[in-house]
Amino acid sequence: MLDSIRIGKRKNAKQKLRKSVTPAGLFGLLTIFQLICLIRLLFSHRVMENPLHLLAFVLLIGVEWVYYGFSRAIGREHIELEASAFFLTSIGFVALTGVLPSSTWMQLMGVVAGLVVYNLVIWFMGSIDRVVKYKVWIGVGGVALLAANLIFGSIIYGAQNWIKIGPITFQPSEFVKIAFVMTGTATLDRLQSSRHLTWFLAFFAVCMGALFYMGDFGTACIFFVTFLVIAFMRSGDWKTLVLFCVGAAAGAALILTFKPYIARRFEAWRHVWEFADTSGYQQTQLLMSVASGGLLGLGPGLGVLHTVAASTTDLMFGIVCEEWGLLLGAAAVSVYVGWALFAGRLAGRTRSSVYSIAACAAASLLLFQAALNLFGVTDILPLTGVTLPFVSRGSSSMIACWGLLGFIKAADSRTYKQGRLAA
Amino acid sequence: MAEFFAAFPALQTLAQILSEVLRWLVILPVLGFVIVWFRSMRQDLPENTPIAVLVNAATRDVTRIVNPETAIGRSRNSDIILNFPTISRNHAVISYRKNGWLIFDTNSKTGVFVNGERVKKSAPLKNGDVISLGGVTYAFSDRIMD
């Protein structure tokens, strides 16, 4: 009978204590950045035509510090993840205020709703038993959302991915992303038997079919990559991934054979300058705008990219670079990379594989979506019309991004009560 | 504001200077935030300190359990890899839940035994319990001293 085991301490040279960065310091730096931007916005003619819209930006700063107080009140000390999300949101806000000030109020509402969803996801993920118990209902809810979109959806910018209820329009596929990660995670947890894999594969197939039918190929790509991440984390088998990729390529070839009009959407890919007046117009305008902005930008409201269609959604990176500089655009990109690195580091320290898979799936979804947007508008990849997470205009996207961030936060065991080891 | 500055040209010059200064000044908090943020994300991550151990009955080797959920199997994806033909790819999972330690049989072919009794789906683990998987026997201990 073992009473106790004495084990040697592992010597780790990196365990030398360094002074921790306080959350207040991080939020303070963020506020300084926001205040400088706010003062710069005062010099914008377009903004000062109706300066009341600046109040939305001021309220955003207020929301941040209210959230900071809330986090400290519930004992959540490590809020670096939220700080980075607010940083990206602020970048989007300052760009949006300079080109379309009236839309900042809806964006602010998206942030508030997103924070609610964020904390809901953290709470929900707090118990693995709860996640496993409700995974089927979450999957059913996701399918129901897509079905509602197929029946009631409106076609905007070529994709039937919008539902309109009165003055409010939203994109169901954005919320399905949260359901997708949660369902895939719970189904492929290592404690589940292999037959549960069939449910997730069926759910995945339904999602992909619906997205292709709606014409939302960008989101379909994102779902596919997320599926690969989840499947790889579950199996660790490269051969399975190759099999899925080959299957996907075969499926894509079949679709292009029977629906050649889809291929015409990508005719400008790698040849945007030859189609500068037609299908390549958006990318060429963005490339010119980014170049004209330089490192520090032209200044708020002084750019021209906002006149291009879908500029505040698909081309938001261009507006940021044109009016606020490439440095700020690069800073935004670094945050996405940081999330992926953070999720990877957390994966080996979580309480359960559910959290590892969820965090890595969510982080890779956000990173791939950002990459698809950035590479699409710069003609490295075909333009697929996905938004830049936290930066682009769109409340649905904002809410979904906060929800996905909740999975990364839930993987950090420091999120939950101190000393609570059990899952 | 444009009309205001038009009436006071000197102020307009001052505004232009201020605008240019702010244009450069914004770099500082942006760079500062990114650097500080990356640094803070690396710090204070939860450490992988052992929370339980498995002592091999035959060799007396000590295997540390550092996660509240630890997979045992032949697969390279497992936390504890046992490369024996009698061990399934995903053989068992030792998990710490609210009620304490549990061991799960994850559809293994040769089964999981705790103190000689076969585990049907899951079984509780206490300090000193003997776990057998595919002929490999361990003693479980959750009382660790540094």
Protein model, in words:
The complex is a heterodimer of chains A (423) and B (146). Chain A is mainly alpha-helical. Chain A is 65% helix and 4% strand. Chain A has helices at 23-42, 45-48, 54-73, 80-99, 104-124, 128-152, 172-187, 196-214, 217-235, 238-258, 260-264, 281-293, 316-324, 326-347, 353-377, 395-411; strands at 5-6, 154-156, 159-165, 168-170. The longest helix of chain A is centred in the first third of the chain and has 25 residues, at 128-152. Chain B is of the alpha+beta class and 146 residues long. Chain B has three helices and twelve strands. In chain B, the strands form two sheets. In chain B, strands 2-1-11-10-7-8 form a six-stranded antiparallel beta sheet, with no helix packed on it. Chain B has a five-stranded mixed beta sheet with strand order 4-3-5-6-9, with no helix packed on it. The radius of gyration of chain B is 30 Å and the shape is rod-shaped. The mean pLDDT of chain B is 86. At the A-B interface, strand 1, helix 1, helix 4 and helix 14 of A face helix 2, helix 3, strand 5, strand 11 and strand 12 of B.
Our measurement of the CA-to-CA distance between the termini of chain A, rounded to an integer number of angstroms, reads 28 Å
Q: Determine the strand fraction of chain B and express it as a percent band.
A: 25-35%
Q: Which structural category do the helix and sheet elements of chain B fall into?
A: alpha+beta
State Rg of chain B: 30 Å
User: Largest interface: which pair?
Assistant: A-B, 63 and 61 residues
Could you describe the largest sheet of chain A, including whether it forms a barrel?
3 strands, antiparallel
Mean pLDDT of chain B: 86
For this entry, give a set of tags.
heterodimer; A: 423 residues; mainly alpha; three-stranded antiparallel sheet; 65% helix; globular; B: 146 residues; alpha+beta; six-stranded antiparallel sheet; five-stranded mixed sheet; 12 strands; rod-shaped
